Structure to design on (530 residues):
């Protein structure tokens, strides 16, 4: 496959040098008076290089190249339909689509108009769609035939690609600035009701330093980017799709309703993928199948920490270091590992991305050398404008000038170590125990497929460590065996005093263990016991 790969260095945020400290010290966020993500991700490229590959469409099983010119033309057709429905600046536009050129074009069309796009996940059921559509106030949705049926109960205006006008709109992009609203991305709901994080047109720029770091300076000649993560989530939309388009790196679109190892390998091979973002769940499935992927230039992962065992396996399976990154829907890509700049440290996420001031703070908002709340100073490019129509919750997200992530962490020689969610940290007999380390340890056992660790109320110790374990097919690993496994590898006080074997764990649609459900289950067990 031959691709027109005009150099992209001029569009990278991290253009010069291979020293992390120098990149951070010399970094300044661009502050243009005018900024529109439609121009950044599509229109500027279409004007200069209309035949340049933008999206490599693998949904049919064979590769079809969608150029920037074709992507722009499709977005203009979406824009014409939106205008015909009376959509104007500030209106919300739902996008209920999996990975596809139309998905990308729909966001671009909304942004060009000054409207606000609302990504929606195809696996949502009625109530999940109802809450997001109702909260955002979206009255039009771009979707496909399946989505039209899903949306029928809501009485919205919907359109599929077949229903778009033949001729596109010709209006100029709206006169928007970095702080003007562009997209509402709903939190995955690991704690509490999903909230709509409202982001401005600067959010794409804000992602670029961390995305470039996580892919060993993305934007090199021959780079081709893909993730199995759905583009309805910030991890797919702004960790992969839009940064790839903005940097001129072709992005692969492939429909994977469920992650499948064989299909994953085929996509990477047939599309000549060189850069992949794998969520931890996908990495574990690849590891369980013993599947390697030679020929990659970079592998990034984020969402939950990886242990030393997974990182070591990744070096063998991919031939490159897995770069872990850190962020959340409200302020993403704030820290990352980057093998091109510094060595990885197992158990640590990496170092702050240029442009982000990351700190570990105490309850009063003062920086601390010990364990504390991971926080990001106001002014970061990828930081939310607000929670949509929730001023009190927006205010509660900040502690002075710091956005508090809700995660606990510590510093180790400039590396950020993730301890756990603030409400996930286990207090047992005076010890504060992070569940992630215990989960990582259990996952190194050959009989464990996946695991969730929580604190269970205990009258003597405040809490005890409880693990919910899904065994691999054919495994007969016992609780005593797994307890011994952890005792021999971690501190004696942190081993799980109780282990329950389960068929499956509660997961968000992004593949994160919902610990609040496991904690509720553990608490209910105490009530039954009494």
């Amino acid at each position: 496959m031959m691709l027109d790969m005009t150099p992209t260095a001029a569009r990278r945020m991290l253009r010069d040098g291979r020293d992390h400290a120098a990149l951070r010290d010399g970094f300044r966020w661009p502050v243009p008076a005018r900024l529109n993500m439609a121009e950044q991700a599509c229109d500027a490229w279409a004007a200069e290089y209309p035949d340049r590959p933008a999206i490599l469409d693998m949904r049919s099983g064979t590769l079809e190249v969608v150029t920037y010119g074709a992507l722009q033309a499709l977005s203009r057709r979406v824009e014409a339909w939106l205008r015909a429905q009376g959509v104007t600046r500030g209106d919300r536009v739902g996008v209920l689509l999996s990975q596809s050129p139309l998905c990308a074009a729909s966001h671009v069309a909304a942004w060009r108009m000054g409207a606000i796009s609302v990504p929606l996940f195809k696996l949502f059921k009625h109530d999940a769609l109802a809450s997001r559509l109702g909260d955002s106030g979206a009255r039009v949705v771009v979707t496909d035939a399946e989505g039209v049926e899903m949306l029928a109960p809501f009485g919205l205006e919907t359109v599929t690609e077949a229903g778009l006008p033949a001729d596109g709109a010709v209006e100029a992009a709206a006169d928007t600035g970095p702080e003007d609203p562009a997209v509402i991305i709903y939190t995955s709901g690991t704690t509490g009701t999903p909230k709509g994080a409202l982001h401005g047109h600067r959010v794409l720029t804000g992602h670029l330093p961390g995305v470039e770091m996580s892919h060993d300076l993305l934007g090199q000649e021959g780079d081709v980017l893909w993730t199995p993560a759905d583009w309805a989530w910030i991890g797919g939309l702004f960790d992969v799709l839009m940064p790839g388009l903005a940097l001129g790196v072709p992005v692969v679109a492939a429909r994977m309703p469920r992650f499948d190892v064989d299909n994953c390998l085929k996509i990477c091979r047939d599309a000549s993928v060189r850069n992949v973002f794998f969520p931890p769940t996908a990495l574990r499935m690849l590891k369980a199948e013993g599947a390697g992927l030679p020929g990659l230039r970079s592998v990034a992962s984020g969402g939950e920490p990886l242990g030393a065992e997974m990182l070591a396996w990744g070096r063998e399976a991919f031939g490159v270091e897995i770069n872990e990154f850190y962020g959340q829907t409200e302020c993403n890509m704030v820290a990352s590992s980057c093998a091109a700049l510094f060595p990885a440290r197992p158990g640590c996420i990496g170092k702050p991305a240029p442009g982000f001031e990351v700190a570990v703070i105490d309850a009063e908002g003062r920086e601390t050398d010990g364990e504390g709340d991971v926080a990001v100073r106001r002014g970061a490019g990828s930081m939310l404008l607000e929670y949509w129509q929730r001023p009190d919750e927006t205010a509660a997200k900040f502690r002075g000038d710091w956005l508090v992530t809700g995660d606990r962490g510590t510093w180790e020689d400039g590396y950020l170590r993730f301890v756990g969610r603030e409400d996930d940290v286990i207090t047992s007999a005076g010890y504060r125990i992070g569940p992630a380390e215990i989960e990582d340890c259990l996952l190194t056992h050959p009989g464990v497929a996946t695991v969730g660790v929580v604190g269970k109320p205990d009258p003597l110790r405040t809490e005890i460590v409880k693990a919910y374990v899904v065994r691999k097919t054919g495994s007969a690993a016992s609780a005593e065996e797994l307890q011994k496994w952890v005792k021999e590898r971690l501190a004696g006080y942190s081993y799980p005093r109780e282990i329950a074997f389960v068929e499956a764990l509660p997961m968000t649609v992004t593949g994160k263990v919902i610990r609040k459900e496991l904690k509720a289950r553990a608490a209910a067990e105490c009530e039954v016991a009494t």
User: Anything to note?
Assistant: The longest strand covers residues 402-412. Residues 1-5 have pLDDT under 50 and may be disordered. DSSP finds 15 helices and 26 strands in the chain. The domain at 36-201 is CATH 3.40.50.12780 (Rossmann fold).
